[in-house]
Write a structure and sequence with these properties.
It comes from Agromyces humatus. InterPro entries: BPD_transp_1_N, MetI-like, MetI-like_sf. This is ABC transporter permease. Keywords: Cell membrane, Membrane, Transmembrane, Transmembrane helix, Transport. It is a multi-pass membrane protein. With 316 residues, the protein is mainly alpha-helical. It has 2 domains: 2-74, no CATH class; 96-275, MetI-like fold (Orthogonal Bundle). Helix content is 78%, strand content 0%. It contains 15 helices and no strands. Helix 5 (88-123) runs antiparallel to helix 6, helix 6 crosses helix 8 (172-206) and helix 9 (209-216) runs antiparallel to helix 10 (221-232).
Length: 316
């Protein structure tokens, strides 16, 4: 119980600090938000500027502005977009499903393929298959996702016409169809990371005493791999998968831009280009919260996957 309370207190402090940094960065950004709010230079009269500053609390000190913004954010009010003149929360809620669907699709791909390749490489360690998998995943990890995306679009969409060039689709089947290439582009680098972590963790487990004991009882290779080696390697693998998912939730900008997907990443790019500070602040805050939620869920799940972790937590 005490550990859970400490964790919640740490999350709260982290969120407050991160939110203040985000707000202060927007406050210090070049350019006056009033000029973007008023728009037409002919309307930049002293009276109009003063009215807009008072309406958006821009005439208040930084700490007062931050407190107003944070208080509203805690109630779900993320402000009004400078560009769209709509509530930021409603704009984000319309864009979030596309990003979550893309990340979920990519997660399935890199988890299944990454763990599969890692297990295969660990079982065939020291052989040509192992070297081929390690070499190919190392190469895949070094290729930027936007390069992978452009290659996929050029070949599978433009030349072959198998997949659409842009858009996220409507409905489950159509969305899967539209997001196949973006999900592949987003998952390539993650697949390489997960496969290498899986291989390394399993190789370490192969030399452990409990694996040698299982072999001495006459247990066959596949049973040893899945019951004793992979089972005890789940902790680092799940942790790495969670970290990758958390980074993906905040890192779909490039892939969404390449494939023309109206998600959170493309919304952030548009907001930065148009100096739409309320949207930028809200999206950055979402990224921080998403990362914290994912990592916290993993912390709670790890003791279930590996009882040794739970016993260490209780003793501490």
């Amino acid at each position: 119980m005490l550990t859970a309370l400490r964790r919640l207190a740490g999350m709260a402090v982290t969120l407050v600090v991160a939110s203040f940094i985000i707000f202060a960065a927007m406050y210090a950004a070049p350019g006056d938000p009033v000029t973007f709010l008023i728009g037409n230079p002919e309307n930049l009269t002293p009276e109009r500027i003063a009215a807009v500053r008072a309406e958006y609390h821009l005439d208040e000190p930084l700490l007062v502005q931050y407190w107003i913004w944070l208080s509203d954010a805690l109630t779900g009010n993320l402000g009004t977009s400078f560009q769209y003149h709509q509530p930021v929360a409603s704009i984000m809620s319309s864009r979030l499903p596309a990003t979550l669907a893309l990340v979920a699709y990519a997660t399935v791909l890199f988890t299944v393929a990454g763990i599969g390749l890692g297990v295969w490489a660990a079982v065939r360690r020291g052989r040509a298959t192992d070297s081929a998998i390690v070499g190919s995943t190392t190469l895949a990890a070094s290729v930027p996702s936007f390069v992978v995306g452009i290659v996929l679009v050029s070949f599978f969409s433009v030349q072959l016409g198998w997949f659409p060039v842009t858009g996220a689709g409507e409905g489950f089947a159509d969305r899967v169809y539209h997001l196949t290439l973006p999900a592949i582009a987003l998952s390539i680098g993650a697949l390489a990371i997960v496969s290498r972590v899986t291989r390394q963790t399993m190789v370490e487990q192969f030399d452990s005493e409990h694996v040698e004991a299982a072999r001495s009882t006459g247990m066959t290779g596949p049973l040893v791999v899945f019951r004793h080696v992979l089972r005890n390697a789940w902790g680092p693998i799940v942790t790495m998968i969670a970290l990758v998912i958390a980074s993906m939730l905040a890192g779909t900008v490039v892939v969404e831009s390449v494939f023309g997907i109206s998600g959170i990443g493309s919304l952030l790019v548009d907001a930065i280009n148009t100096h739409d500070f309320p949207i930028v602040q809200a999206v950055l805050l979402y990224m921080v919260v998403a990362y914290m939620v994912v990592t916290t869920i993993v912390d709670l799940l790890l003791p279930l996957l590996d009882p040794r972790i739970g016993s260490r937590v209780k003793t501490s």
